[in-house]
Every structure is written in structure tokens, then in C-alpha cells.
């Protein structure tokens, strides 16, 4: 079976549209974390890749949408698609290997080209599983079923009471572990952490996400105090790109270090493992190689004694594909259920994602099971409605 066509669709769902005006958007959505203070977060974004086989079967993948999805869509349609149309459908990693080499040689081995390749890889795996009539996880060596999760985020809120209230609300909804956004400075962060821990009691897990908001000295200062607050892990305490510095933070931290959502290449994750910089790696399936990337990283984590806990953001497509990879991979730890308002995740799928008894369910349908509704895709598409099939 050959590839007949590839389309890329950039999507946008602004918070202003969701709430009926920018002035009605809660401030914590516009500035939910340390890296959204001067440059506000305006909404949810994604690029979908649709790969059509000769018989009309379509596989769907997703590229990470921030800061804006338009360039990724252009890379898919103008650079990747011409070389794949007419190709036999085989192993997705092998089909994209020449593109990885090409982009790396051009100095673009990371960033949006990597995200574009992740989307196409994901779509090819979805297509292969649909053609086989099997859930994707079965094709990968696993089986459908539930996965342990934690919920995110308790965003930047103005008071410790507000953070505590938001954390309690998640527990009341049945979640057993919660992520708190920090990164405003050691003193104020420790106050929010203590308030949330007191509100949760000793049972629920508490993850912390700095979103790269500290320098090394501040990260060490905070990390030394976290065991007394019952913290599960300390995520992205410093900016990416310096495994040795993160290893120094880890050596002083009293709790495990998690990182990786801003990495792209296998070599980057491998460097973190070799440096002793992480206890948990958190690749984003929509930027770190798609399904093939997550499966390879799972094997690497199993060898290194590290847990893989994917960055759980994106539309219904990326989330569903990641769940299938997690059900089949080695080294899996826990999945992140992001609950920021996101119509691309919650309104767009043909079949809604299931959260049951504090776990998220990997769909038992052919492919990854996260297929989007065409009418909703066109509702959020940036630009003209999707072209009809040739």
C-alpha cells in the first residue's frame, strides 16, 4: 500500500473565543507558568497531519502547536510530503530517516522541523494500525487498558489560599496526584508548596513544575527543602541545554528530578541520562519523534533505570497516540492529564478520552483512536476549510 496524499492543518482555539472575550479570560490562563509572564498564552494550538493511503484510509498525527502552528504545517506540506507521496507504507522511523539527516545537516534538527516529523510519524503509525485493523498499542506489542496518571496544573494563582483551593478541587474530582506550577522565586514558591501540601494532606502525590524558571543556585536552594514537603518530583528547575548543570541540581535535590518536555532528539535525552541529570524523562510525543521517538526513548529509559512519563499536552490526537505508546513501551512511569481548557482535546475527538477511577484509558479501537471530527477541525482551522480529497 502506498501513500496517496498528505495534508497539514494548523489549528487555533483562543481563550478569548472560549470565554467570549479577552477581558473575560481568567488571568491564570493567560499567565499559567513562569514562561508565560511577559509573553502571554493566548490559547491552544496544534498542527494536524493527515496521511492518506491509496485505499482512502487516513492516519492522523500532531505537531506541537506553540508558539504558532503555521510554520509546521508548511514544513509538512512543502518539504516532507513531496518525498513521501507515492512511497510504500513501511516502518515510520525508516521512512523519515532521510528527513532527519537532511534537517540536521541544514542546522534544523530540532524545533519545528522535528515537530513536523513527529506529526508525520504519528500519522503513519495510526495509518499502519488502521490498515491492520488493530489498536496501535497492539501493533507496538502492548494492549489497550488504563494508565496511571497525575493531573496538571495548579497554575500561577495570586494567593496560597487560591493554590490550595485549586489543588483540593482536583482531589475532589478523584485525582490522586497533582502538579503545581512554581518559578516565581524561592520564598513565594515554598509558601505555595507548603499551602498545597497542607491542603492535600499526606496522601496525594505532589509534583512541582518550574518551567525552567530558576537559575542553578535557586534550583539547588529550593531542591534541598522539598523532601519535608512530601514532593514527588521537581520538574525542569533550570532551562534545557546544560545536562551538567542539571546533574549538579539533582545531586543536591532531596527529591527526584524530571525533565525533557523541551527536548527533541534522542541524543538530547541520552545526554541527560549519561550525565546523571534526571530520574524521570518527559518527552512530548508531538515534538520528540512521534510514536517511534517515544518507543525508542522507553527502551533507553529501561536500560538507564529512568522512568518515562510523557508531557501530556496537545489535542485528542497527540494524547491518544501517547497513551498507546505508553501501554506498549518499556520504562513507563505515569501519564500527565493536562486539564487546562482545550477544545482541541475535549470537543474535537470522535470518541472522547476516558478518565476512570483516577486513571486514563488507552482506547480499544483501530489506530490510536483519537480521530478528530472533520467539522470541528474546520471550525478551528487557521485559513481555508480543508480541501476535499482528490
Question: Strands, helices and their partners?
Answer:
Elements: E1 3-14, H1 15-19, H2 27-30, E2 43-53, E3 58-64, H3 70-84, H4 92-95, H5 97-105, H6 112-132, H7 136-139, E4 145-154, H8 160-172, E5 177-181, H9 186-200, E6 205-209, H10 216-223, E7 233-235, H11 243-252, E8 257-259, H12 266-274, E9 280-281, H13 290-304, E10 307-308, H14 316-328, E11 335-338, H15 343-346, E12 354-356, E13 359-362, H16 374-380
Parallel strand pairs: 4-5, 4-11, 5-6, 6-7, 7-8, 8-9, 9-10
Antiparallel strand pairs: 1-2, 2-3, 4-13, 12-13
Helix pairs in contact: 3-6, 6-13, 8-9, 10-11, 12-13, 13-14
Tally of DSSP helical segments: 16
Q: Structural class of the helices, strands and pairings?
A: alpha/beta
**Rg of Cα set:** 20 Å
The secondary-structure element order is EHHEEHHHHHEHEHEHEHEHEHEHEHEEH
- How far apart the termini lie comes to 17 Å
The CATH topology name of the largest domain reads TIM Barrel
- The total beta strand count reads 13
Shape: globular
* CATH C-level name of the largest domain: Alpha Beta
CATH architecture of the largest domain: Alpha-Beta Barrel
Mean pLDDT: 94
Major sheet details: 10 strands, mixed
Portion of residues in beta strands equals 15-25%
Please mark out the parts with pLDDT under 50 across 5 or more consecutive residues, or reply none. Answer: 385-390
| Tally of separate domains | 2
- The H-level CATH homologous superfamily of the largest domain, spelled out, is Enolase-like C-terminal domain
Amino acid at each position: 500500500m502506498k501513500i496517496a496524499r498528505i495534508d497539514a492543518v494548523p489549528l487555533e482555539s483562543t481563550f478569548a473565543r472560549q470565554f467570549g472575550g479577552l477581558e473575560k479570560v481568567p488571568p491564570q490562563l493567560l499567565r499559567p507558568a513562569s514562561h508565560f509572564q511577559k509573553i502571554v498564552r493566548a490559547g491552544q494550538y496544534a498542527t494536524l497531519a493527515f496521511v492518506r493511503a491509496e485505499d482512502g484510509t487516513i492516519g492522523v498525527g500532531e505537531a506541537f502547536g506553540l508558539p504558532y502552528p503555521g510554520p509546521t504545517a508548511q514544513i509538512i506540506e512543502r518539504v516532507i510530503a513531496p518525498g513521501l507521496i507515492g512511497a510504500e507504507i513501511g516502518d515510520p522511523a525508516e521512512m523519515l530517516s532521510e528527513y532527519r539527516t537532511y534537517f540536521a545537516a541544514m542546522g534544523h534538527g530540532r524545533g519545528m522541523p522535528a515537530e513536523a516529523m513527529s506529526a508525520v510519524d504519528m500519522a503513519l503509525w495510526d495509518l499502519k494500525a488502521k490498515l491492520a485493523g488493530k489498536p496501535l498499542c497492539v501493533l507496538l506489542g502492548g494492549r489497550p487498558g488504563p494508565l496511571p496518571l497525575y493531573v496538571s496544573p495548579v497554575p500561577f494563582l495570586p494567593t496560597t489560599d487560591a493554590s490550595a483551593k485549586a489543588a483540593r478541587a482536583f482531589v475532589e474530582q478523584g485525582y490522586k496526584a497533582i502538579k503545581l506550577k512554581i518559578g516565581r522565586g524561592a520564598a513565594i514558591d515554598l509558601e505555595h508548596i507548603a499551602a498545597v501540601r497542607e491542603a492535600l494532606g499526606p496522601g496525594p502525590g505532589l509534583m512541582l513544575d518550574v518551567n525552567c524558571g530558576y537559575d542553578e543556585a535557586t534550583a539547588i536552594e529550593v531542591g534541598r527543602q522539598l523532601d519535608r514537603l512530601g514532593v514527588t518530583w521537581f520538574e525542569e528547575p533550570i532551562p534545557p541545554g546544560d545536562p551538567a548543570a542539571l546533574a549538579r541540581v539533582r545531586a543536591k535535590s532531596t527529591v527526584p528530578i524530571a525533565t525533557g518536555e523541551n527536548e527533541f532528539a534522542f541524543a538530547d535525552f541520552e545526554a541527560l541520562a549519561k550525565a546523571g541529570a534526571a530520574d524521570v524523562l518527559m518527552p512530548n510525543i508531538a515534538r520528540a519523534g512521534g510514536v517511534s521517538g517515544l518507543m525508542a526513548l522507553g527502551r533507553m529509559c529501561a536500560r538507564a533505570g529512568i522512568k518515562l512519563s510523557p508531557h501530556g499536552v496537545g489535542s485528542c490526537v497527540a494524547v491518544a497516540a501517547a497513551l498507546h505508546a505508553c501501554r506498549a513501551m518499556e520504562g513507563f512511569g505515569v501519564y500527565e492529564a493536562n486539564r487546562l481548557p482545550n477544545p482541541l482535546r475535549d470537543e474535537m475527538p470522535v470518541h472522547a478520552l476516558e478518565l476512570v477511577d483516577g486513571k486514563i484509558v488507552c482506547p480499544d479501537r483501530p489506530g490510536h483512536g483519537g480521530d478528530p471530527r472533520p467539522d470541528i477541525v474546520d471550525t478551528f482551522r487557521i485559513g481555508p476549510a480543508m480541501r476535499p480529497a482528490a
